[in-house]
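Q: Hi! New to this. If I give you a protein sequence and the SMILES for zinc ion, can you show me the bound structure?
A: Yes, paste them in.
Q: Okay, here:
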Amino acid sequence: MIDTHAHIDTEAFDEDRAQMLERAKQAGVEMIIIPSIGVEGFDNLQEIVETYPGLYRGIGVHPHNVANITEVDMLRVEQESSNTHVVAIGEIGLDYYYDFAPKDVQQLWFRRQLQIAKKVDLPVIIHNRESDEDVLRIITEEQDGTLRGVFHCFSGDTEILQRCLDVGFHVSFTGNITFKKSTMDDVVRQVPNDKFMIETDSPYITPVPFRGKRNEPSYVRFIAEKIALIKNMSTDEVITMTTNTAKKLFALTVVTILCAVNLFAQDDYDDHPYPKKLGLMFIGATNTIVEAQEIAGIGTQPISYNGISSWGVGLNYALSDKFIIEGAYVNSVNNKVTVATQDNPKPQANPNTHQTVELVAKYLLNPYSRVVFYPTVGGSVFFNDYNIGDKPETNGLPQKSNTIPGVVIGFGFFANINTPYGLIAPGAEWRVDFYLTTEDKQTSYKGKAYNANVSTFFSLPRITLTWYPKL
Ligand SMILES: [Zn+2]
Ligand SMILES: [Zn+2]
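A: Thanks. Here is the predicted structure of the protein with zinc ion bound:
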């Protein structure tokens, strides 16, 4: 369940905010959207949504509070709309019932905030009281196909509902639909299933059976139950539909992921946003070995072995913000080689082991970003064992070990994720290791064994996970 409109940043909840949120969680409320009403509350609201999980916010100035605002305040709305947890511009709109600001002033700032919403590509939360005509007119005038949002606490008739839908908007229902004297049944019946959401508008408009008490997000279920009753559906269906609609309109899934990453990122402990010193690295790779075999009297015979799974471990040491030195050990076992000999003309499996020690430097192109790209270059040493069968001395297969130097080049990227345990950097890299020398190797060609002069390179796309503990 998502309560798409609750003013739980207000004083009414200062005494028991944590307990109230716990009750909401117990009641099945997974997310709550808190609209803002005025510039004075922006910082407090931001602190609250960053403190508790599952809270998201709107940013904007409520028609009650627009009497004395200026372009400077609009600049704040626009700039802070990129804060984490901000999912909408709102609540904004017109209120001719209370009339706290002249109508033309309300309209001016309503329109201005719709324009900001279009610019920053966020949905809007509309507050509309006794101002249907002007709200709909201004939205229609500003609608360029990108404006989207919700008429919160919808209490219009079916005709107004249709006009809201026609301008591409959603509606959300609150406690008033549960009141005995409610005239909203027809509207609820008519609204398409993917065009409405539920809200409490806490601490106001408390639904039956708690009418008269302070409203809170855990009561949002009563709205879903009432809608289910009117629409002749199950409450679960209403909850699923409204949750999906809210997630889609406010892009909550994407925002949740971004907020999770950002939560970690708040844990900085020096000037660098992603500090690194010594990191422990785990490597998983798939090795492709490409050989060119030069066989006397026959010529060049290319051969490659694909998909050899490899693993490794390494140490990373940051020399500076931009340079990382990596030492790594990678182990590959190639089970795909078959060799025939004069004694055993039938090709037999001849697993080869390649152990590689690499020392490379990585140059970080954008070290202060969340995702960092780098080229890498260095050297390697291969320790090769050919034929590690059970009894190589008796099965007639050639057995040989050698040590060969190589060069490494590659390109990769990793993500920086600050956690309470240090920095975690998952990444991916494509690395090619070339043998610096050729080797003499016994090989088979048309069922016969030959000595070949072999040049080799390893192509290793790898995924890496590096942990830089706090030192
Ligand atoms: Zn409102
Ligand atoms: Zn409100």
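A: The two ends are 42 Å apart (CA to CA). Let me know if you'd like me to explain how to read the tokens.
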